[in-house]
Amino acid sequence: MEKLRIVFMGTPEFAVGILDTIIKNSYTVVGVITAADKPAGRGQKIKYSAVKEYALEHNLPLLQPTNLKDEGFLQELKNLNANLQIVVAFRMLPKVVWEMPKLGTFNLHASLLPNYRGAAPINWAIINGEVKTGVTTFFIDDKIDTGAMIMSSETAIDPEENAGQLHDRLMHLGSDTVIKTLDLIETGNVTTTIQEESSDIKTAYKLNKENCKIDWTKSASEINNLIRGLSPYPAAWSFFSDKNEEWNIKIYEAKIIDEDHSYEIGSLICTKKEMKIAVQKGFIQVLNLQFPGKKRMKTSELLNGITFSEQAKAY
């Protein structure tokens, strides 16, 4: 049985949960690789990645390469003398990096591969109305999320759940799965399964302005899934217009009302407390939203300070 010397690579909060579990299970982490510091927000203050914050708190050796093929970085990585690398929500690695450790480099991906390879697997599973998802560990190869699978763990998606809640559950499930994977590697009991290719594999495309915009002509369930799948970040959005004014609105929470009506699709129907938007065969009731320049709030709070006319539209 070979004692593991691990280099961990990751950037966001999701990766921190996994790294923390590895440390708490007394594995030796000889180095952490994370994204370079970036200016963020209005003040353009330098922001550390969540993984960097954790590494500094726990005195873990830290590298922040801008170029993963840089000779200096490769030498520093080699000097850490790791025999295994773990990647969680980082970026694509060049072959020279993933081939370096004797026991290989494995990735934890937040989907049941081969479905939802790509940048936003948690979001797309909800957006597409999946009833189950999970996590998969696999050895990295030269394409994105295509390597030989080691383990996968499955969980049901609650119909009320949003991406933030599913993210937190998959972080815990992922932590358990990584520890089980480490045990298999350490004891020499790893067996892998090659991912089967087929034409109906679903992809977790990168989220952008276009695919986060609500199309009110879609079915109520498709719209609600988009809102859940993008909440709390980056948030589904729509234009609202009323009395020659237009706003770009983020919607974080909604519910479906099944009801026949004769309103035009996208009509905004408001009372003092409630806001509904007419869709096919019913309404989307908006429960939580954000107007430009305002904080996120309950719809009832917004309607205390703003009144919409009968001509108001969402589009």
From TrEMBL:
Sequence ranges assigned to domain Formyl transferase N-terminal in this UniProt record: 5-181
GO cellular component: cytosol
Pfam family, one: Formyl_trans_N
The Formyl transferase C-terminal domain, residue ranges: 206-305
SUPFAM superfamilies, alphabetized: FMT C-terminal domain-like (SSF50486), Formyltransferase (SSF53328)
Record-linked InterPro entries: Fmt, Formyl_trans_C, Formyl_trans_C_sf, Formyl_transf_N, Formyl_transf_N_sf, Formyl_transferase-like_C_sf, Met-tRNA-FMT_C, Met-tRNA-FMT_N
UniProt: (6S)-5,6,7,8-tetrahydrofolate binding residues: S111, L112, L113, P114
Statement: the UniProt record of this protein carries the keyword Protein biosynthesis: yes
Reaction(s) catalysed (UniProt annotation): L-methionyl-tRNA(fMet) + (6R)-10-formyltetrahydrofolate = N-formyl-L-methionyl-tRNA(fMet) + (6S)-5,6,7,8-tetrahydrofolate + H(+)
Entry EC number(s): 2.1.2.9
A molecular function GO annotation: methionyl-tRNA formyltransferase activity
Enzyme's top EC category: transferase
Keywords: Protein biosynthesis, Transferase
Function: Attaches a formyl group to the free amino group of methionyl-tRNA(fMet). The formyl group appears to play a dual role in the initiator identity of N-formylmethionyl-tRNA by promoting its recognition by IF2 and preventing the misappropriation of this tRNA by the elongation apparatus.
HAMAP family with a match to the protein in the record: Formyl_trans
Family: Belongs to the Fmt family.
Stated name of the protein: Methionyl-tRNA formyltransferase
